[in-house]
């Protein structure tokens, strides 16, 4: 399946849908999830059009690491030293927006295994 440039995250990146940003740099943006599952539930998304994790190649290694470091730094900056970082890939794994993204969840006990 190919990347759909009309997905909600692509539209946020183009400024078509407003989203107050928690972080922005040349490779990614971060903002709060509209359906938060924890006191902190942020999404870190690459500016690059990647449908999901398996669409990333070796050339995307730095971007993938960058997304995780941004998530970690964001959680710490917002006062959450403990956090969960989640990447869902595919509808069966819970991915609902088909643009690669990292969920950053913190501020409440998080059960294991997850839902």
Overview of the structural elements:
This protein is of the alpha+beta class. The chain has one domain (8-106): HIT family, subunit A. The chain is 20% helix and 21% strand. It is built from two helices and five strands; from the N terminus they run αβββαββ. A five-stranded antiparallel beta sheet has the order 1-2-3-5-4, with helices on one face. A hairpin with a 7-residue loop joins β2 and β3. The protein starts with 7 loop residues before the first helix and ends in a 9-residue tail after the last strand.
Number of domains: 1
CATH architecture title: 2-Layer Sandwich
Q: Could you give the distance between the termini?
A: 26 Å
Let me know the largest β-sheet. 5 strands, antiparallel
Label the structural class: alpha+beta
Order of helices and strands: HEEEHEE
Q: How would you write the strand order of the largest sheet? A: 1-2-3-5-4
Radius of gyration: 14 Å
Principal-axes shape call: globular
- Which topology does CATH recognise? HIT family, subunit A
Query: Please, what is the CATH homologous superfamily?
Result: HIT-like
Give the helix proportion (percent range): 10-25%
Number of strands: 5
Report the CATH C-level class.
Answer: Alpha Beta
* Percentage beta strand: 15-25%
Give the mean pLDDT.
Answer: 96
Helix count equals 2
